[in-house]
Queue: 3 jobs
Job 1
Amino acid sequence: MEIKASISSLEDILADNRKFYQIPDYQRPYSWDKENLSDLIDDLFNAYIDNKDENYFCGSLVLVNNEKDQRFDIIDGQQRMTTFIILSCVFKALYWEQINDKAKDFILKSIQDRYEETKRKLRFLTNEYNQNSFEQNVLQGINFKEFKNIREMENDLKNNKYIINAYYFKNLLQNKLNEYKEININDFIVWIYEKVVLTVIICPSQDSAIKIFNVLNDRGMPLSPVDILKSSLMYNLDDEDRKIFKATWNSINDNVENNGLELFSLLNVYLYYTITSNPKTRLDKELLDNFKKNNKNSLEIINDIQNFSKSYIDLLKMEDKYIYLLKYLRHEIYWTSILTTALFNNYEYFNELKKLLLSYYYKNWVAGNTVATIKQTSFRILKLVKEKSDIQEIRSEILENIKNNNTEENYMENLKYHYVYGKKWDKPILLMLEYFATDNNHHKFIPLNADIQIEHVLPIKYKEYNWDKIFTEDEREDWTNALANLTLISMRKNVQALNYDFTRKKEIYANKEVLTCYTITQDIIHNYAEWNVKSLEKREKDLIEKISNILSI
C-alpha cells in the first residue's frame, strides 16, 4: 500500500460511514485549552464572515489504517480531531432545535454510525484510559449546568478536559453569536462541515506515518506565503530591477536570521502595520492586495520592508525588562506590531506605550481572557500609534476595554487564588517581580526553559520535616500552590532543596557554591525567619502590592 494524500472536508472525514478513528494509547493526552479553542473559534468566524465561499484550511491529519480494529489510528492531528468532535456535541446540545436536517445529519454522523444504531459504532475513540470519560460526558450528550464563574466550573468538573472545553466552547459560541447577530447558526454549522478542510495523509505503516509527521513538523509545506509573496513581487520586474530586488530581499532575510528571528514573523508584523486590522486571508494575498490598492511598485515595497525590518530587529534585540516580559506572551503579534510601528514612526511616547502594553496584556492574561478580548483594542492602539496620537487616547482605549470585560477584578482575584502554580503565567509573573526587584533596567533576558524552576517553599510533599506540624490540612490546601509560596530557583538547587524544613532550605538557597541569582529568592532568605501562614499572608500582600505598582495604568 502506498501513501495517499488528499484535501478533505470535515464532511468527508467525520460524516463518511466508512471511516472510523481512534487515538493510539501511546499518544499524549488531549491538551487543548481555552486559548486554543478561542483561536479556533476566532479563525472559523473570521473565515466564515470574510471568505464564506472559500475553503478554510485547518492543518493536517496523518493516519494509519488499523485493519485489526477496522479504524484509522491518528498519528498526527488528534488534538484537532478531538476538538471538532467536542464542538459537534456542543452544537447538538445548544442548537438542536434551531438547525435543519442537513446540519443534524452532519452532527449525528460525526458522533456515531447512524445506520448501525443497534451496534452503535462510535465515529471516534480516544485512548483507552480516557474513553469512558469522553463518552459519558461528551458523546452521550452534554448536560450544561450553570456556574457562577469559570473557577467554580473548573473545580466542579475536576479537571475533565473534555467537558471543560465543552463549556468553553459554549461561552465562546454564545459570545460570537451575540457579537455577529446576522450569522445563522444552521448555515455556520453546515459551512464548517463543507468548507473546513484538512490535508489527510493515509500511510501504510506506523513507521511511515511518523516519518511523514516529522517532515510536516520540521519542514512545513513546500511553498510558503513568503515564497509566493517574493515571486509575485518579482514577476513583472525587468532584469536590472530584479537583481536589485533580490539583493535587497536577501539582505533583509540575512539580517533577520542573523539576529535569531524569522522572515515570516517580520512580514506578518509588517502586514499588521500596513492594514491595522485583522487579516482576512493569507499573508501574501493580503499584502499584495494592499500594495495594488495603494499603487506601490515592487522596489518601493521592498525598500519600505527593509526600513521597517530595522525597527523590528531593534525592538526584539532591546535589553529592556518591559520587552523581555512582553516576549513571554503567547500572542506576540499584537505588541510587536504596535511597538515596531512606534519605533518605525518615531512615536514620541514609546516608553509610556511599552509600559501600558505590559499592563494591558498581563492583566488580560492573568484574568483568563482570550485573544478575542484584546484583538480589536490592539488594532485601535496600532492605528493610533500610526497616526501619532497622544498617549492619553491609548490609555483611554485600554481602560475602557478593561472596564467592559471586568478584567481588573478577575486579574486581582486570580492573583490571590490558591492555585497560581500551573497557570501559564506563573513563571512570567515571578520573573516580573525579579526584573523589577531593582531599579536597574540592564537585565539579561531569562528564557522560560528548564533551567529555571518554580520552587514551593512549603513543599508539595509536606509530611516530612514537620511541615504538617506548622500547617493544618486546610492551610496547606490554601497556600501550597498560591503565589506567596512560590519563588524561582535553579534546576540543580531545586533538586537539592526538595522537602527540607525552612531553616535547611534557606541554607541551600544561600549556598555560595550553587548560589541562586534570583533576587526574589534572596528576599525570602533575608526577610523571613520562619515559614507559616503569617509569613505567607505578609508575602502575598507584598507581592500583590509590587505587581499592582508595576501594572498600574
Job 2
Amino acid sequence: MTYDVIIRDGLWFDGTGNAPLTRTLGIRDGVVATVAAGALDETGCPEVVDAAGKWVVPGFIDVHTHYDAEVLLDPGLRESVRHGVTTVLLGNCSLSTVYANSEDAADLFSRVEAVPREFVLGALRDNQTWSTPAEYIEAIDALPLGPNVSSLLGHSDLRTAVLGLDRATDDTVRPTEAELAKMAKLLDEALEAGMLGMSGMDAAIDKLDGDRFRSRALPSTFATWRERRKLIAVLRHRGRILQSAPDVDNPVSALLFFLASSRIFNRRKGVRMSMLVSADAKSMPLAVHVFGLGTRVLNKLLGSQVRFQHLPVPFELYSDGIDLPVFEEFGAGTAALHLRDQLQRNELLADRSYRRSFRREFDRIKLGPSLWHRDFHDAVIVECPDKSLIGKSFGAIADERGLHPLDAFLDVLVDNGERNVRWTTIVANHRPNQLNKLAAEPSVHMGFSDAGAHLRNMAFYNFGLRLLKRARDADRAGQPFLSIERAVYRLTGELAEWFGIGAGTLRQGDRADFAVIDPTHLDESVDGYHEEAVPYYGGLRRMVNRNDATVVATGVGGTVVFRGGQFGGQFRDGYGQNVKSGRYLRAGELGAALSRSA
C-alpha cells in the first residue's frame, strides 16, 4: 500500500480537542488514509516528513482575511500558508467582489483595507470574468490556489449591485420593496452557489476610495434594520452565518444583532453570528471584564448564537503619517485622508484653523467609545528623517516643546514629510492576564487577522503560532490558561464547526490539510515583523512575519506545499503559478467528501 505522503512519529492533534498521541499518518489521494501507532511502509512514498519531536496539527483556518483581490494576483497566498494556514475566508466586513463591477469594488475595498486602489482595480479588470456567485466560485476554484478558500457575500457589494454606489451611500435613499426583494434574491443565489453566508458593517468608520464618492461611508452602514432583517431571514432559512460589526457609538446596535440571532424570537431557528471584535482595548479598559460574561448571558437569555472574533495577540499597529484607519474616527482625520496629494495634505495639517478644529474633536471624542486610546505618549517614532526623534513618543516631544500632543504630532509630520514619519503603538490586548482569559473565553472565536489588508499597518499572519507559543509557555510556567490541544481546536475544528467549513480536523478519512510545527522554535521569532517588497503591488513594502524554522511543513489537499527551515522556507515548484493544491470549499460539504472529489 503506497502513500503519497507519510508524516512519521509526530505528536498528533486531531483538531477536536482530544489529547495528542504520537502517531504516523499516511496520506493518499488527498485524504488521511491511515493513522498508525507504529511505523508505516515507506516504500515508494515520494514525501516523508520526519515529525519526531514535532506537533502535527490540522491546517489553521483564518476566518477573517481580505485576500479578495490578492488571490487573483498571487493565488498561493504565501504569507498565510508559510505559517500553517490552509484555509482562508474571503468577503468579510461587507466587502466582496462578487456582484459589483471592478470600479465600484475597488472604491469599496481599497481605502478600507489600505491596499493601493490601482492594483485592486487592475486585478479585477484583468480577471473579473464572472457576473454571478456560481461563476465567481468557479473562477476562484480555477485558480492555482495554494490554500483552500471559502467566502461570504458582502452586504456593501450586494447593496451597490442593486442600488448603484451613489444611491447605496446616500442617507436619504431607502430601497423600494422591489429592490429589497432583489437583494434577498441575490443573497439566496450566493448561498445556493455555496457561499457560507453574508458579511455586513454597522460602524461608519470605513470610507470609500476613488474620486466619485470619496470619503462616504460603506454602503452597508446606510442600511436600516428593516433591510437587515430581510436579509438575515434569508440566512436563517438557509442555516448560514452572518459576520458583522456593531456600531461602537450606539450600544443598542449590538443588542439588535443578538435579537436578530435569537431562536426565541424567530420561530426557534436562530442565526449564527460572528461579530467584531472582542479585545482588551486601552481606550476601554473596563470593558474586557464584562464583555465575555455579557455575551454569554445574552446568548442564554435570548437563545442567540453570537460570538465575537478575537485576535489572540497584542494588537500592535504601525503607521506612515496618518495612514491608519483609526484617524477615520475624526472628521478632521477623514478630511486629511481625503486628500491624496501629499503637498495638499501637508498644507492642511499645518493650517491653524484645521488644527483648532482637530484639537477640539480630539479632546471631545476621547471621552467616549473609541478604537484608539489617543495617547500620544504611547505612540513611538520608529522611522523619521530627523534621526534625533527616533525612539521618542510624540507625547514626550510635546512635553519638551510645551505643546498639545496633537500639535506635536502634526508638527513632526509637517516638518519631516507626513508619510516619511513611521510610528507604532499597541491599541489592545496589552495585558497578558486579560489576553489569556480572552483566549479561553467560550463566547469568542479566534480570528480578525485582517490578512491581506493594512499592508503597512500590521502583520498577524502567524497569530495561530503565537497563540500556541503562549499556551506552551504558560503551561511550562505552571500557569496554564489553555491546553495545547484546546488551543489547536480553537484554531481549527471549532472554527470549521461554527462557520460550516469542510476542514479543521485531521482524522482518518479527513481531507489532508496539515501543519507540522517544531515547538522548539516557538520562540521570539514569532513575535517580530519584517518588511518585504510585493512585486504585484508595485514594490510596496508589506509588513510580514518570518519564522520559517517554526513550521516544518504545510500541506494542503494531501500535498506538502511548504517546507520550513532555519535558513528560510521554500515552496514547492510551480506553487501558486501552475500547480493547484487548494480549492474552493462550498458550504455544507464535508472535508472527507471534498478530499475524495478533488
Job 3
Amino acid sequence: MGDWYTVGLALGLGLAIGVLFAGLLSATPLGRAAAVVLAGTAGAVAGLLIEDWAEIGAGLGGGFVGALAAGIVVAGALRRGGTRGGLALIVAVAAAGLAALAFVPFVGYVQAIVLPGLAARLRRTQGERYAGLRSLAKD
C-alpha cells in the first residue's frame, strides 16, 4: 500500500482517538479542551507509530477534529439529560467502530469529512431538553 493508505489510516485512527477522548472527558468545558489537546497528542503518536511526518500530521489533525466534533455531540447529549457513564460507553463503542473502519482503504478520508459535517448539522438543529409529558402538565 502507498502513502495515501497510511495517511488515511492515521487520519481515521486520530479521529477515533478524538471521539474516545471526547466521550470520556467532555462533561465540562475544561474537559472538552483537555480532550482536544490530549486527542491531538495521542493522534500524533499514533501517526508516528504508523510511519512518518505525513502520518503524524494526519493523526494530529484527526485527533483535533474528532475531539471537537464529538465534543459537540457529547455536550449536547449531556445537556439534554444523558448520563456520563452511559454516554462514555456508547461513544467508546462508536470510537472502536471508527478505528476499525479506518483500516479500510480511503475510509479514513471519508470519516474526516463526514464526522465534522454531522456535528455541524447537529449543532444547528439542537433543541432544548425534551419536554416529554411535562408539556401536558397544568401549571
